[in-house]
Write a structure and sequence with these properties.
Blueprint (H helix, E strand, L loop, with lengths): L1 H7 L12 H10 L4 E2 L18 E2 L10 E5 L2 E6 L4 E6 L1
Parallel strand pairs: 1-3
Antiparallel strand pairs: 2-3, 3-4, 4-5
C-alpha cells in the first residue's frame, strides 16, 4: 500500500479534503449558521434528530452528496437520508 494507501486512509469519499477544511470552516462561520444543541457526543456515526436543517456544500469544496450543519459549535457533514454524521470538519 505504501504512502499512497496511508494518505488515503481516514479520508472520506465525497467529504471535505484536508487542504480545504480551514477555508470551509471560515465559509460556514461567514454564513452565520446557527449551532444546533445536541445532547449526545458529536462523533462520526451519530444520528442527528429529524429537526436539524442541513445546507448544501458549495461546489468549490468538491462535489458531494453530503450536506453540512453546525452541532454543538462543530461543523459536520451529514448523510441527509440517514442523518448520520460522516465527517467532523476540524
Amino acid at each position: 500500500m505504501g504512502a499512497v494507501g496511508g494518505a488515503a486512509a481516514g479520508a472520506i469519499t465525497g467529504g471535505i479534503a484536508g487542504d480545504q477544511r480551514a477555508e470551509f470552516r471560515t465559509y460556514v462561520r461567514e454564513q452565520r449558521v446557527p449551532s444546533v444543541s445536541y445532547r449526545e457526543e458529536v462523533v462520526v456515526g451519530a444520528t442527528l434528530p429529524e429537526t436539524v436543517t442541513y445546507r448544501e456544500v458549495p461546489a468549490r469544496y468538491g462535489k458531494t452528496r453530503y450536506r453540512y450543519t453546525v452541532v454543538n459549535d462543530k461543523t459536520v457533514l451529514v448523510e441527509p437520508r440517514t442523518r448520520k454524521i460522516v465527517q467532523i470538519i476540524e
